[in-house]
Amino acid sequence: MSLALDAVAQDLLFREARTANTFTDEPVTDEQVQAIYDLVKYGPTAFNQSPLRITLVRSPEARERLVKHMAEGNQPKTAAAPLVAILSADNEFHEELPALFPHFPQAKDAFFSERPVREGSALLNAALQAAYFIVGVRAAGLAAGPMTGLDFAGVQKEFLDDDHTPLMVVNIGKPGEDAWFPRSPRLSYDEVVTTV
Prior knowledge:
Layout lengths: L6 H9 L14 H11 L11 E6 L2 H8 L7 H6 L2 E8 L6 H4 L6 H6 L2 H25 L3 E5 L4 H8 L4 E10 L15 H4 L4
Antiparallel strand pairs: 1-2, 2-4, 3-4
Helix pairs in contact: 1-7, 2-7
């Protein structure tokens, strides 16, 4: 059975898409980022909670502050990428639920009144949205370089607050020279899918 999405789009989003390690100096515009967000915001989350928050690191001063919190191997590419985004989970997402989940506005207090419950839900659902964001970057014809090699506590202190948990840093741009490592193997269908 074939997919509804044509082969070119499948390649763009998945088969040919790779994690970029180098980028050209072509800028990534605010309009491009808005188009990416306006597409990926429709990806599902529990209770439509939408806890992902995106911090765009554009100024040279902010970039310098971020690079010092990246693992050594991630520092040069983060310093050189046209745009860097810090993706985080908003642990106070429940404040938006009356607007985001209007058919049951009581969900805010009925399910998410306790901070540990919110943190777990925010982490899971923001991670889902981070994956949507990466696919959205690819849909825009750009490459994403998501990284978790960083000082999470340092990034949180430098750029966020106690209500936001950093998930990853994503370098964004047009792929540069020698941007790709060799593709790593993937598990087969039979190794992953079980029918009961």
